[in-house]
Q: What sequence folds into this?
């Protein structure tokens, strides 16, 4: 069941979203060669708590840390630990914060140091595919219109869209209905109406979209070892353009 949010709930989601966006930017600033993923996790946990919120991902479904940090061929659900970030690594930060009972969820891909031109292009195409998709995140459109637009943009650039993992409704819990795939044909799925809150999150591979989960039962990697990127915001369906709840992208709180 899709839960349409009241004005009060939307205000709480804005609050959670601002904190989550700032946590993403805070983590992104820490991405650099020589830093461990656990250092980022600990700092982001403390940052979120300093804003009166709690890290949504910590213990969610048994996830052991506060931030998902996935590197290079890791697409999502990387577990922070002793791994040291290296020059040129593609570092995906996915973070959630819960404040006063409502959740923000967002992600971005950061490059440690300069990175290669092809890595920078993958990151930019992935980010832009989100904005192509959310042109359809408005009343009168259907959920699959978003994914169809993401897929078209991504494939036009020679990359592939991960299919095994999807965006989702977000609200009082991290994952609500509906599922929001990043691929498919337009005109299917629930109709979008004002007051819905969803997380749109393209996951894009430089090679094939086939993926599998590592033995730690969490981290999802591309089967062909190709680089992957991820970008996500939680957003509100309004009467017109969607309102991005996990915003701004810069560190601004
Ligand atoms: Mg999400």
A:
């Amino acid at each position: 069941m899709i839960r349409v949010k009241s004005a009060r709930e939307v205000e709480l989601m804005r609050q959670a979203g601002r904190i989550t966006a700032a946590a993403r930017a805070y983590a992104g600033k820490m991405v650099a060669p020589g830093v461990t993923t656990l250092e980022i996790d600990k700092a982001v946990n403390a940052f979120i708590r300093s804003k009166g919120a709690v890290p949504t991902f910590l213990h969610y479904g048994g996830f052991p840390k506060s931030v998902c940090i996935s590197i290079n061929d890791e697409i999502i659900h990387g577990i922070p630990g002793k791994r040291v970030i290296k020059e040129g690594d593609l570092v995906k930060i996915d973070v959630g914060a819960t404040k006063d009972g409502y959740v923000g969820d967002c992600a971005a891909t950061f490059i440690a140091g300069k990175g290669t031109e092809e890595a920078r292009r993958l990151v930019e195409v992935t980010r832009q595919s989100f904005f192509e998709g959310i042109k359809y995140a408005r009343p009168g459109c259907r959920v699959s219109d978003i994914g169809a637009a993401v897929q078209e943009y991504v494939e036009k650039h020679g990359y592939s869209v991960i299919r095994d993992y999807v965006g989702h409704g977000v609200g009082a819990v991290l994952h609500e209905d509906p599922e929001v795939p990043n691929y498919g044909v337009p005109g299917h799925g629930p109709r979008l109406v004002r007051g819905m809150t969803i997380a749109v999150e393209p996951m894009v591979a430089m090679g094939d979209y086939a993926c599998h989960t590592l033995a730690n039962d969490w981290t999802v990697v591309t089967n062909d070892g190709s680089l992957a990127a991820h970008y996500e915001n939680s957003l509100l369906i309004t009467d017109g353009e969607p309102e991005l709840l996990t915003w701004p992208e810069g560190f601004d709180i």
Remarks:
- The mean pLDDT is 97.
- Residues 105, 168, 199, 201, 232 surround magnesium ion (CB under 6 Å).
- The CA atoms of residues 145 and 253 lie 33 Å apart.
